[in-house]
Structures are given as structure tokens and as C-alpha cells.
Amino acid sequence: MTTTVMTADTHDETVTDGIVLIDFWADWCGPCKNFAPVFEAASEQHSDITFAKVDTEDQRELAGSYGITSIPTLVAYRDGIPMFSQAGALPAPALENLIEQLRGVDMDVVRKEYAEQVAAYKAQQALEAEGENA
């Protein structure tokens, strides 16, 4: 599989299933240009993974929603759950290591922990809202 362009309109659908790697980049960024062939080569080796690219100049709102302040930034999802985010161009061996780690994760444990974190966040938000209304 080769890389696919991700936009705000295709984001949610893209990250839902399986392993998804997202490369946030810009045309003027030298390190982004150096990372692009590494990302593309990995996409050709791992046809079961979605490799998405987000042009931060074209998709400013999407990049902003991730808090992207430095590019390239690589974000990884598995089954709709964010698993990894790091700025900087990864060398090929590090990208392969990340893919191996993502494949090896026990998603039952991750889903449970993620649900607990979401519930705790929502509870905190509710408490803060009550405090503002008091």
C-alpha cells in the first residue's frame, strides 16, 4: 500500500480500524522531505497498515487539533486509539521498531485503560463545570 492523503473530512474514518501511521509534514520542511522516502518505503512493506500524510499547510485545522508545533510529527493509532506521537524524522529501523511494538500491543488492556482515562477526563470536566456554575 502506498500513502494516502488525510484531511479533516477523512480523519475519523481513517483512524478507526487497524494500525494507522500519520505523517504531519509541509513542503518547505527539509526533515519532512528526508523522512518521506522512509515513510513511503514502510508503506510498501506493510500493506496491512494505513500510512496517511497530512500537509500541515493545507490542513491547518487538523494539524492544530493535534497540537502540531514541529514537523515532521508521526502519530500512530491502533483500532481508533491514539498510541504514539513524536516530532522528528525517524530513521527506518526506528519506524520498523515502532510498527513491531504497535503490532505486539495487547489491545484488550489498552481499551480498558483508555476507557478509564476517558471516564476520568469526563468526570473532571463535569466537576469543573459544576464549580463554574456554583
Automatic annotation (TrEMBL):
This protein's UniProt keywords: Disulfide bond, Electron transport, Redox-active center, Transport
GO cellular component: cytosol
Family: Belongs to the thioredoxin family.
Gene name of this polypeptide: trxA
GO MF term set: protein-disulfide reductase activity
Protein name: Thioredoxin
Top-level taxon: Bacteria
Residue ranges occupied by any Thioredoxin domain in the UniProt entry: 1-104
InterPro entries per the UniProt record, alphabetical: Thioredoxin, Thioredoxin-like_sf, Thioredoxin_CS, Thioredoxin_domain
UniProt entry tagged with the keyword Mitochondrion: no
Keyword Signal: no
